Amino acid sequence: MRVDEIPLLAGLEPNVRSQSLVMRHFSEGEVIFHQGTPTTGLWMVLNGRVAIEHIGARGGLVTSGIWVPGDIIGIAGLWDQSGYPGSARALDTPTEIAWMDRATALSLHQQVPSFAIAISEFLARRLRFVQENIANRQGRPVIQQLSIILSMLSRRTGVYVRLTHEDLAHMIGTHRETISRTLQELQKLHLIESGYGEIHVLDQEGLEKLVDDF
């Protein structure tokens, strides 16, 4: 993805974009920023995928989201410079990110109306996504939660979902062994094919129907 294809940046003059952004490259498993460190700016995913991970109250690791090209991460503490609520980890090699420092982002927010509107629209979409995600998954059996996640990811990233069983376990808050058993159940239903580090979604509508039928 090019920087001018990101809605937040599309309204900026080309010279402003080039002066405002720093291109950064990461490899699979590399940490982009750590939970609790002060927010330094905005990170816009251009290529690859990024997992946002939190250390919970009991010390367990929880993955709250997988972000793909076009997504913006690290926005939560932009205005008050509070710490990042989670750590960001690159899932692919390469993962390319355009970074804008906090002072520049705040200045553009005040001076460029299209930039300010784009941030507001982005925050509204992110809030709606988080609320719907919580509402759809809360209290459901693991097989339903996993079906929701796989359906969502296949729509966003394609029918080949490249995540390990451990990654999926962190997203749901369960054990890797539970994910392995559940994936076997979905495979027996011919909804997916599960391989090492990759899941092929064969029937997205079937996954969604499985959720509705419970």
Q: Care to describe what's here?
A:
The chain has 214 residues and is α+β, with helices and mostly antiparallel strands. It has 8 helices and 11 strands. The chain has helices at 7-10, 14-20, 102-111, 113-137, 142-157, 165-172, 176-188, 204-213; strands at 22-26, 31-33, 41-47, 50-55, 61-67, 72-73, 87-90, 95-101, 160-161, 192-195, 198-201. It has a 4-stranded antiparallel β-sheet with strand order 1-8-3-6. It has a 4-stranded antiparallel β-sheet with strand order 2-7-4-5. A 3-stranded antiparallel β-sheet has the order 9-11-10. The longest helix has 25 residues, at 113-137. It is elongated, with a radius of gyration of 18 Å. The mean pLDDT is 89.
